């Protein structure tokens, strides 16, 4: 809790704040009444995302605004309904039925939305695959749940090893027949040759499987996390109250649906709230991103610390070339949001950046900075209404304010995962203490209920008996003008148990030098604490990161260190 600054909201920015109930008055049951199924009990996420809005007279509203490298176009809610109905008809004709796994391997593109919605309309469980996955990552996932159907682009399908995936019987390609090979089916051609089936929607139970996302956690092979249609309750209301989405907003979530953020807050939540979503095909580029924000008039923007840091590293002069005045609400997820980024947001974008915390397993945001509340930079915010958080000690006891322990959430909430695919034993490891979901993250909660992230439990550093969270050291270092990116780990040390080691990527106008190294060490020593100052600093060209969400891979940095020291031993 190094930083005690409090940043008050600019109330005029936000819309929904006034309708927020007090914590005591909140009930998930009340939220359900926004949906017609609260009477029927039968549901379909795709209907709630799309068809419902067309029936209510909003068919002409823009649902998707696509900006690709070659083309740019918009689709209305009616377009999205017609296209997803049509593709659902094709899928059904080719055998897709309720409960089947349908993988979607497409770049960020409206086709990805349409494919996902079409599969969901049939009651299939959709598995969006991240566009940068290579052969093994794709194989592992499809194999694990015996996926039978795949919808892919002609480029990405090349990374699918059909000969090693016997379960995968049917592959649809989002292209014309000339671009298909072997038994691949041209989705475009088939779609031209069918009549859209009326009432194509398969009504399912609230607990019926909706999507599967694989998450690696800290060890072991990826686990298939399955969510149910019920998750929409929380995905809808967090979209409304946290993203503050309303009529007239232009919303951009920069994540690909292969990351849970891109599915929940890139596809479902904005459609559930009848918003216009911007889709940008292509990779990160500061100029492109600023251009998109300006040109499409984005009002609400959801991204990640790694992207904000890359924009910061490009300098503030670049921003001044763009008119970004339409942006009224910015949010972040996936990694600790350094206070420096929050300051940058206020100075250069005239907006607070609102941190949100959740996990693949939790299915929706749980710890948030509501737009109407004060922000404490360095804190992830407070539990969303209806969510109870606590810091637990080793034996599951609730720790007092300020103590470091495991961040735990009182189960149950609507979007909590339904199962870990074929691994009930793994599922129960999340609930070692009665009624609590254990996150694997270490955190503290202050007297006012704000939650401060410390690190994954396996990232904590213990140096001469002092416990040091890598996040605080990283956040201090990032304040230094020379530092663009940083990852901090505990390096095994014979005397101290561990020492703090920082891996730093320098901003391009800075050169590696002994003086700079000393200056950085002093910067932490004087700004944070002597024991937190890195005893070792190594400069790198880039940091290892998770491909999907850009999280700094501290465990990879650790593994490199371990390997280095064992090499030393061997070479002695
Ligand atoms: C949505 C998502 C989950 C892990 C989580 C934590 C880290 C997420 C964070 C954050 C600090 C935040 N994480 N949000 N750490 N501050 N606001 O990221 O899901 O990819 O499954 O990762 O990410 O360590 O446990 P997922």
Task: Give the radius of gyration.
Answer: 24 Å
Give the amount of beta strand, in percent: 15-25%
* E-strand count: 26
**Overall average pLDDT:** 93
Fraction of residues in helix: 25-40%
Report on the structure:
There is one protein chain. The two termini are 44 Å apart. Helix 13 links the parallel strand 13 and strand 14. It contains 17 helices and 26 strands. 30% of the residues lie in helices and 22% in strands. It folds into two domains: 23-445, ANL, N-terminal domain (Rossmann fold), CATH 3.40.50.12780; 459-571, GMP Synthetase, Chain A, domain 3 (2-Layer Sandwich). The chain is of the alpha/beta class and 572 residues long.
Question: Which SSEs are present, and which pair or pack?
Answer:
Elements (H helix, E strand, L loop, with lengths): L27 H5 L4 H4 L4 H14 L3 E6 L4 E5 H17 L7 E5 L4 H12 L3 E4 L6 H10 L4 E4 L17 E4 L11 E2 H6 L16 E7 L7 E6 L3 H10 L8 E4 L6 H13 L3 E5 L5 H11 L3 E4 L1 H9 L2 H4 L9 E4 L6 H11 L3 E5 L9 E2 L13 E2 L5 E4 L12 E6 L8 E2 L3 H6 L6 E10 L5 E6 L4 E3 L2 E3 L1 H9 L4 E11 L3 E10 L7 H14 L8 E4 L14 H18 L1
Parallel strand pairs: 1-11, 3-4, 3-5, 5-6, 6-7, 10-11, 10-12, 12-13, 13-14, 25-26
Antiparallel strand pairs: 1-2, 8-9, 9-19, 14-15, 15-16, 17-18, 18-20, 20-21, 22-23, 24-25
Helix pairs in contact: 3-4, 3-9, 4-5, 8-9
Ligand 6R9 binds next to helix 9, strand 14, strand 20 and strand 21.
Give short descriptive properties of this protein.
binds ligand 6R9, nine-stranded mixed β-sheet, GMP Synthetase, Chain A, domain 3, nucleotide-binding, 17 helices, five-stranded parallel β-sheet, alpha/beta, Rossmann fold, 2 domains, 572 residues, EC 6.2.1.1, single chain
